[in-house]
Amino acid sequence: MTIFGKLFNASIEDPSVSISSPDVLRLIEGGQSVAGVTVSESKSLAMPAVWRSVNLIAGTVASLPLHAYRSDGASRTIVSTGRAAELLANPHPDMTPMEFWETVITHMLLWGNGYIWLGRDEIGRLRELWPIHPGRVKVGRTSKMGTKVYSIDGGAQVFTDYEILHLPAFGYDGVCGVSPIRIARQGIGLAMAAEQYAAQLFGGGSLATGILQTEQRLTPKQAEDILDRWKKRQTGLSSAHGTVVLDAGAKFHQLTIPPGDAQFLESRGFQVEEIARIFGVPPHMLMATDKATSWGTGIEQQTIGWVVFTLRTWLTRIEQRFSRILKPEQVYAHYSVEGLLRGDSAQRAAFYKEMWYLGAFSTNDILALEERGPVPGGDARYRPLNMGQLGSYDSTPLTGGTTNA
User: Fold this and answer.
1) Distance (Å, whole) CA 186 – CA 336
2) Are residues 237 and 361 in the same domain?
3) Shortest CA distance to 341 belongs to which of 373, 365, 369?
């Protein structure tokens, strides 16, 4: 079997992998929480708040444009040709860039580590990128300050950073990132246990509206007849506020949800807030708007804070790590956060206007960001006529409305 076959086709169904292997047991069992629920990275996605948080961050980051830039002094230009640009535009043979990065970022969010196999040609040039499931990778160093090495599926062969790109999330040993699911197992386990309890509460009939009780012993047919008559008298608008006559000594007892269960169901909202804290997502983005308005500047500021304090950390991790594998080309990877304005034409227009007004963007710069062709004379940049040169004592406005970039 080729090395690619060993890396990407092996599974726990492989007869060479012992069923008692610690890796297999860890994969199957996950971690037990005090609440009695098994919590693992994969199973945690069954919790809607975890699913939404991971889907939101991974999907948002993966959808942002990721370009290769070349630095030449103070100049920064997008590289549209060459191996680096091709690799960012088409990293995987059959996965789109969105699908590829969404998978890798999901691994980082759940397992705390993303691993990518660096597919190279015969002379060492990067050709393709393959995501590797974090559960299959072990990472360490050859010594206390030695080279980082990787083992896949418990194999004896080790790989280095030349073969594998490691994208660690937050960690504390300088080697691996930490899985937030493992760290916050108790909180997520409590949320999953509450989910199961609520399902059993409804599914077990504990929320029945009432009980029809009689002191007489009824046959199944008699019981069905009484129940059928009760439903006919109670169902429909014409029966609203009507009086029901019961025979055979039948009595109706109204049931309400026990106060403890009612309070428990309300407390489930707190677990959504806990998961929002774990992933750094504002509660309103998890559709939890009961304690905040869904409109206004408050929500808008929370969203901006999410971009600045949560998304930026993930973008920077990927940019810095990915830039390393683009060497020896003098380029680096950088996300275009302006892509977040793609769905908001008003904010996008206001941003372009301000940048054009300051002379930072030309007309053709804006057209390029909107994926439109350039226009003649569109490379000129403008500044207001009533602005003087910074630091000049001459209060006379500068003349000449145009200046070249």
Assistant:
1) 37
2) no
3) 369
Is 153 found in the same domain as 251? no
Using the 8-state DSSP alphabet, how is residue 75 labeled? E
Q: Is the whole-model pTM more than 0.85?
A: no
Total domains, the chain: 3
Contact 132, 3 (CB under 8 A): no
pLDDT digits (tens, 9 = 90+) for 88-127: 889 999 999 999 999 999 999 999 999 999 998 888 888 8
Which distant-in-sequence residues (6+ apart) come within 8 Å of 325 by Cβ?
A: 118, 126, 165
CATH code at 222?
3.30.1120
Last residue of a domain, one of 313, 339, 365: 339
SS3 sequence of 275-315: HHHHHCCCHHHHCCCCCCCCCCHHHHHHHHHHHHHHHHHHH
> What are the DSSP E strand ranges found in 231-368?
251-254, 331-335
| Widest pairwise Cα distance in the chain | 106
pLDDT tens digit string along 330-345? 788 888 877 666 656 7
Which tokens go with 314? Answer: 């993930």
- Do 63 and 141 belong together in one domain? yes
- Same domain? For 12 and 58 the reply is yes
Same domain, 221 and 231: yes
Q: Which helix (H) or strand (E) holds 346?
A: helix 345-357
Q: Map tokens 């403008």 to a residue.
A: 382
The whole-angstrom separation of Cα 310 and Cα 196 is 30
* Domain carrying residue 249: 208-256
Length of the chain: 405
